[in-house]
Amino acid sequence: MSDKNTSTLQSYVDSATGAAQSMMGSVTGNSADKAAGADKRDEAAVKNDLSHASAKAGPYSVSSSGAVTQDDPNRTEGSWSQTMGSAKETVGGLTGAEGLKQQGTEQRRAGEEQEARGQLNDLGGGVADRAKGAVGGAVSGFTGDREGQAKYQEMHDAGKTQQRGAEADIQRQNP
Length: 175
Prior knowledge:
- This protein is mostly helical.
- Helices cover about 80% and strands about 5% of the residues.
- α1 runs antiparallel to α2 and α4 packs antiparallel against α5.
- The protein is elongated and about 75 Å long.
- It starts with 7 loop residues before the first helix and ends with a helix.
């Protein structure tokens, strides 16, 4: 289940509120308001970081909300193909076996493409599940369907975890 305190949107709202409070403190000369605004902005930055926090354990992503998702199989298989291709390239280069080296290059490149397809599937699926969960949760909340609201919150959280896991891998590969 998601905690409102780790929401990316909530962190932006809190940051804007803190900036406004700090600005009002500066305009009015009220140092307490200025300090409180700065504290609120700092807290918002921490919330924003938490909303993006995720951990990887093999082919699984775990988020700060507690949701766990499994990576698209193409991500794992593509990564393995890259590793094996790189090993063949190295052995082929060390032994002078140009055919093995070329085969390794082709396998590594194919693995990169396969992993990228898996990342895009996870990214797109995660965004879609987050959107469906947010809309479904809002409708369920409006109609008073608490069970439906919880189900859609889980969908949203799983989508967010899937999206963040793919984003983390993409950022790691493209610093």
